[in-house]
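Subject: for your reference before the review

Hello V.,

The reviewers asked for a structural picture of the protein, and I figured it would be easier to keep everything in one thread rather than splitting it across files. Below is the amino acid sequence we used in the manuscript, unchanged from the supplementary table.
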Amino acid sequence: MVRVALIQARTGTDPVANLEALAQTVAQAAGGGARLVLTPEGSNLLQRDRAALLQVLRDEDSDPMVAAAPALARQHGVALVLGSVLVRRPDGTLANRLMAFDADGTLVARYDKIHLFDVDLGPGAEHRESGTYTPGAQAVVAGLAGVQVGLSICYDLRFAHLYRALSQAGAQVLVVPSAFTVPTGQAHWEVLLRARAIENGAWVLAAAQGGIHADGRATWGRSMVVSPWGEVTAALPDDAPGVLFADIDPAASTEARRRIPALRHDRPFELGRVHALPPG
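And here is what came back from the structure prediction:
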């Protein structure tokens, strides 16, 4: 068994205050026996105003949360996954980046969000993440706390082929740190998380942002742990900040895949002729 802790946050616009809140919750997670701690998307900063964001955004080496993460991991003896931090790349472009640290503070993996949230949910709810961030191009599986962990961020959740590839590469656990909007969270959050778990016979850990943030956005919360059989084994009931604990058994992934070996049953196919309906 591996005890995990999912941090549900209400990240603001001040990176220093956000780091202070993170340090407190990581200590709480470690105090509860967690070996693997996951934070949500945008843990270091959430700022909808692009000009204000650009004023405070730092590169990876000088971001306060990234700089503090190795010491936090070592101090508490936990594998710490910063579900994402918003940082500058060396070429000046911006990344929405997951960073995973082992319990000795070693940076084990980076993952830049591949699928960017460009949607129009209705009046006043248009999102163009690609107007600010550059997408990643590489899927990543990392060994953390004795398990193989497939990395993703938020909107990635809607792209089932990514999780298929991660699982076929050996991931037993899929992490989905997120900042889901309220409308999409109400409609799709739980069902998508359960679907990714069932399809791949994998644990799904989804740490979320929740509530009304300093920049005015509203996020859904409801952080959740889903078993490889699709059962919600732990969940927070609302959007309030908090820590969600769960004990996960990596062997449950092996058993689910034995019972339904779908990962081994993929077959190549070609799309046949599409017969369009007549006009009108």
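For the response letter, the relevant points are probably these. The chain has one domain: 2-262. The two ends are 59 Å apart (CA to CA).

Happy to draft the paragraph if you're swamped.

O.
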